[in-house]
Amino acid sequence: MIKIVRFISSLVGADVADENYRINIVTVLVILCIIIYFIFTGTTVASVFAENWKYLLEASCMVGSVLQGITKLISGVGCTKMISSICKELENLYQHYETKGEAYCKVLNEGCERVWYSIKMVGHIYAAAIYGILLLTGFLILTTNEKVYVMHFFIPGVDVETTYGYLFTLAVHTVVFLAGAFGLFAGDLFFLIFLGQTQLFRDILVLKVKALNEAAAENAKNTESLLIDIIEWHQYYTDYNKRCNDVFYYIITMQIVTSGISIICTMYILLMGDWPGAYLYIFVAFCGLYLYCIIGTSTQTCNAEFFDEIYNINWYELDVKCQKMMVFIIKKSQSPAEIKIGGVLPLSVQTALQITKSIYGLFTMIIGVIEENN
């Protein structure tokens, strides 16, 4: 899975899992696409705004996705060492625990299957959006006499009224659109693989606690070492979550904020009927919002299950020294490391529902304003 993520990331020049990563020609081309988008979108909005101020909302829809892509690229390049380190840790972790017996191999395989399922699901969502928008644009071009565009910017000096100018603009739109889509997908894959391991950490803890309880019941000599191993495992889990929070801090914040704004703008465009691809784009925006929040909720659930599993240790069968060590780990497990949006709001489905509720309130207000104007 890591190889697949690195391959997809390399397509946009951002193989940040490589500890020797350097900005290359592909990275420069992607950055150029971003610059082209912002410059041409700015000039287009400036020229059209006086005649049609609603065009600003249309252009603002994809700005959110572009900002997400920029944040993922900058965060990835800035955290290359940490990302490559986490990738190596995960590979070493799987190699280490697959030698510990069938039970550990089972939870490792289940962990891989969970993450792989998430990757395929997100991949299908992106593929549906990419092919859907491009095919819909092509279909409308062939079946109507109107000039339909993939994105919302025009190139200064290129006359779209001519066949050459229109096709050239459409080609530039497609290249920029695909570069952005692959960049967003690559950033999401790192997020899925890294934070998708929290359930694996929980499953491994369950096996460790089971081994400790069996050893304590038999008064085995390795009881203390098994308890220390659990304490170290919990410390590693907490540190892992903190490092993931550091890597994805700005990415998560930008993802949630811009997704909400893009959804509002796109819903308004759906009312006005000015952009054929709006239906697919709003679907992707909602998926991006809830994908991150669902992963955040999964992490919260694992934190609670870590706490519960530690309480499943038969402390009454341990000696006094180990019982005192239990106090330390129980206290630490009561303050888990959470993934937060902007360091304030917890990344959870509840937060996504609150955002959706706010979006609905704004949307009904917009409908009311439109009806009054009509």
Strand content: under 5%
Biggest sheet layout? 2 strands, antiparallel
The parts where pLDDT drops under 50 for at least 5 residues are: none
The ordered H/E elements are HHHHHHHHHHEEH
How many E strands? 2
* Intertermini distance: 54 Å
Class by alpha and beta content: mainly alpha
Proportion of residues in helical segments: over 70%
Order of adjacent strands in the largest pleated sheet: 1-2
In DSSP terms (H or I, runs of 4 or more residues), the helix count works out at 11
Overall shape: it is elongated
Task: State Rg.
Answer: 25 Å
**Tally of domains:** 1
Mean pLDDT: 85
Short description:
This protein has one domain (2-373).
Describe the protein's architecture and organization.
This protein is mainly α and 374 residues long. The protein has one domain. The chain contains eleven helices and two strands, in the order H-H-H-H-H-H-H-H-H-H-E-E-H. Helix 5 packs antiparallel against helix 7 and helix 7 (198-217) runs parallel beside helix 9. The mean pLDDT is 85.
